[in-house]
Write the structure tokens for this entry.
Amino acid sequence: MFAEIERALVRLYPTRRWGAPDDMARFEAGICEHDGLALAEELAAELDAVTYFRPGEAEEYCDYIYVLCIGREPCLVQIPDGDVSVPEEFSGEPIREQYLRVCLSHMARMAGVQQTAIDMDCTGGDYVIREQPRAGVYDAPLLGRFQRLVALLPAYDILHLDFGEISTPPVDFDPGHYADLYGGQPNTANYLFYPQPATMRSTCVISARAG
């Protein structure tokens, strides 16, 4: 795994500077949306779970598959994207869900998996949805699905990267302007998947008054 990571970083970042990937080197080198959607469908069947494919943001280098492990449909992860509305039966009591979040790199045929919690509360008449990813997968109820998920990736020619092993800065790479944006130095995951810190929380507020 480490040799593959090193080869990918040198190929993708010939200047060895974060934020300056070689566009020709990464062109069609990663996992396309078609493969991501197909993998999401297979994971739903093989893991007996609801899955949801979410394209990455413009500044990210990956797409995501969310595998619902604790919770029920309609999933909270679908609400911020507008795919579903807040359930009519929602009484205002907090909803807590747990997912496996699969990060599918656009830079190389590599994937990483994180455990992430998504919660929804009603605050001041608004619905507040928070996502809180962790640096890896830790909780026992998720580990069985996690192991089966990882075993499926080679069939798609995808190398699984352990997030615990890519949570430090690569040696002899220039962090560029990363500190100005996020503080600290970029980890290997920030070169291959997304720029934000791996455990950065996100919040979405939906006005109940606006429906």
